[in-house]
Structures are given as C-alpha cells and as structure tokens.
Amino acid sequence: MTVLGRAALVGSLLGSSLVVYACVGDEPERVVPSVDGGTDTGPSSSEDDAGEKVDGGNGNGDACDGGSTCEGVCVDTSSDPENCGRCAHDCGKGTCESGVCKPALIADVGDGGAAITSLTTDQTDDNPQGLAQRVFWSATGTGGGVFQDNVVGGNKVTLSTAPPTSRSNVVVSQSNVFWFSQNFGGAPQPVLKGQVNIAASQASVGTMNASFIQSILYDATTKNVVGSYAVNATQHGIFKCGPGGGVTCTSAITYSGQPGGNVATDGTGVYFCDPDNGLILRTALTGGSSSSYVTNQATPNLLRVDGTNLYWSNSGTKTIQRGGLGGGTPKQLASAASAADGLAADAVNVYWTETATGKLSYAPITGAGPTTAYVTLGASTVPMRLVRDTGFLYFSHGTAIYRVALP
Predict the structure, then answer these.
(1) Per DSSP, what are the bridge partners of residue 281?
(2) Whose CA is closest to 45, among 97, 101, 7?
C-alpha cells in the first residue's frame, strides 16, 4: 500500500470517549507502523508514487460521492479509522470522529487509590527509532508498584509490588526496567531493576550515597544508569551505576545548585537543570566538569533531546523552549495556560501536557505556528506524564494511561 498524507499510523487502539482536537500539516518522512506490526516509510505529500492526487477521486475521473479515494477505494475520511482525516492515517482499533483519531485507554490503575508517578515505553523517551511494543509505569499508594502492558492493553505484568515514592521515574533498556524509590531516612538511595515480561522480578542495581535521587535515565552506549542527586542544600551532582548489581553508584560530577526536573542525554553528554538559578547544564557521560548550556531561564525543567535540539519547559513563564545541542540563543515555541508536566518532540511538533487544564497540546518546532489543543480531559490532581514513539503519544491522566496517534 502506498503511504499518503502525514506518515501512516497503524496500531491497535481501544476506544474512549475523550474530546479531541487536531490540525493537519505536512511533515518530513517518518517511520510508521505497517499492518503486520513491522515498520515502513512513506512520502509526506498527498500524492501517489506517480504524482497523481488521490483524495477526492478514484484516479479515473469518477466522483466519490463526497468522499475520498484512498488506494482506489472510496472512503469517508471523517469517520474511517484507517483513513482518518486523510488517506492512510490509521487509528488502529480506535474510532475516528470528525477526521480525528481519539485517544485509547491502555490501563487504569485506580484500584486502591494508586497514582501514576512516571511513564515510559520500550522506545527511548528522547529520540525513539520505531514503534513501542510495551508501556511501563510506576504508581504509588495501595495497589501501586511498577508495571508493564502491551501498547493496546490487556496484558498487564506486575514487575514489583513495592510502590515507589512520588519522586521516581522508570526507564527501560532492551531487557530490563530501571527505577528508584526514595529512602527518606537518608543515604543510601537504592536504584532498582526488573526484567521485561517477568513478574515480581525486582532486584538491586546499586545504591547512591546521597540524601535523594532526583531523576535517572538509561544510557545505551555505556549501559549505565545515569541520574542526578543531592547530598545537602549545596552539594549536588550526576551519578552513574554500571549494568551489574549490588554495587555502589559513583558520582560523575559535583556542583553547587539545586537539581530539578529530569536528566536527558544526546549520546555523549548529560543535560540537567538547576531551576532555582535558571540554568540548564551539561556534562560528559564519562564525567568531569559541567558547563552552562543556557542561563537566565525561568525555572527550567522537563528536558527532551533529539538528534538536533534540546527542548524544555520554563514553568516560571509557562513557555516551551528549544535550543540547538551546540548551544546558542533559545527559541520560544509556545506559551501554555499552566506549567507543563510532560514534554515530547518529533521532527514536526513539540507536545506537552498541562495537569491544571488536563490538556495535551502541540506547536510546530519552528516556532512559526499556532498552539493546538489536541486532547482535553479536564483538570487532574496527578501530574500528566507524556512520552512518544514514532507513531503515537502516550500520556497519563489521573490513574489512567492513554495512547493517541500523532496528529
């Protein structure tokens, strides 16, 4: 099948009754799912391989009774879930309403009052290279723990029944899931792991001799867990743990400041925030000194990296920013109604969630387009987390996790 419009998005979604808004625009070629679960790439125009327009006719000049002809078949792009809004824009098993794919419920972990604290997939959060097969999350409270499920739900695996604390995040390598759970009695702070698909597989990676861990990531190059930590009000740093178990994690650098938000990597360096001082800093994955990537920000956090840019949220000014990995003057991409609690970006748009309004919105990464409210669910009392793969956005709202096709 020829892939038309923006890259085709094929997956299996469960229906929901959420209110969704979207706009349609061109984008560069992107890797997209095929019906058999593999991936394919396609052109970003609305023309077939011979350069002939296919929307609005069947290629023979015949009318399509007000619909559109996609691959020689007359369809209603306002309601066809396989051609939603345009040819080959597939909602999977979800519904298509007014030419827009609606979000699908993956899981609801609300039993016992559990609250979702972090969310990820088996694709990297920063620069995914394909479609995710599984989603992972941590939840606090009764019934909490660390979990995984298929991206369409229905195959939940409980990796750990020990609920992490509210300050935690989950990251994934090919075969392992890593997270931390604060020891509020002080040092040492444990870093834990479980095995993908293996229930009750919690084990120790190591411990960090610090008062708390702020955030972690998994670096596929060095096969280390890397994170930010604080010892006291003035001593902070970046640490790393090797792939083995039962070890003491080592400090890569120390610095004066207050860590906040997540850590991100471009493959050679680690980016982290000092929100109180308006700084985003960078250090080499191998350790050493840190340097300021950008200054004079308004409580920066929520770092995301792709092959070209660093994205972040300024919660003080409620703005979304972009800067080149080599530095330079930041570019404001959007203003939000409230501070963002989740951030993702691709080659076309930057996406973010706002817990106070319950919205998932997006804006072009060029900074030259409007902000579009894509999903609106209503205010949440639990931060809305957000990650993506090459075809879908995954987000949490309250005690539930959803997936929606990229616009």
Answers:
(1) 272, 292
(2) 7
Tell me the three state secondary structure of residue 347. coil
396 beta partners: 401
Q: Provide the number of structural domains found in the chain.
A: 2
Task: Tell me the DSSP string of 60-108.
Answer: SS---TTSEEETTEEE-TTT-TTSSSSTT---TTS-EETTEEPPEEEEE
In a domain, 159, yes or no: yes
Q: 221 is in which domain, residue-wise? A: 108-322
The reported pLDDT for the residue numbered 292 is: 94
User: Same structural domain for residues 4 and 112?
Assistant: no
Identify any residues that bridge with 172 across adjacent strands, giving them in sequence order.
177
Torsion of CA 93, 99, 101, 102, to 10 degrees: -100
Distant-in-sequence, close-in-space partners of 53: CB < 8 Å, separation ≥ 6: 46, 47
What is residue 341's predicted lDDT score, i.e. its pLDDT?
A: 94
Quick one: pLDDT at residue 41? 36
Tell me: do 184 and 219 sit in the same domain. yes
In the prediction, which pLDDT does 57 show? 41
Give pLDDT, residue 179. 93
Query: What token pair was written down for 48?
Result: 């077939």
Question: Which two structure tokens, joined as six digits, stand for 4?
Answer: 């038309």
CB atoms within 10 A of CB 85: 22
Domain boundary among 102, 123, 153: 102
* Strand-pair partners of 53: 47
Q: Can you read off the two tokens belonging to residue 287?
A: 């350790």
314 shares a domain with 218: yes
pLDDT for the residue 10? 32
Same domain? 192 vs 293: yes
Q: What is the pLDDT of residue 146?
A: 93
Q: Do 140 and 266 share a domain, yes or no?
A: yes
Question: Within the chain, which residues score under 70 in pLDDT?
Answer: 1-63, 111-113, 243-246
Gap between the Cα atoms of 234 and 89, Å rounded: 51
Nearest-CA neighbor of 27 among 58, 6, 55? 6
Q: Pick the closest to residue 163 from 180, 185, 182, 146 (CA basis).
A: 146
Query: Would you say residue 402 lies in a domain?
Result: no
Which residue type sits at 24? V
User: Rounded distance, CA 132 to CA 150, Å?
Assistant: 9
Output the pLDDT for position 143.
Answer: 80
pLDDT at res. 44: 35
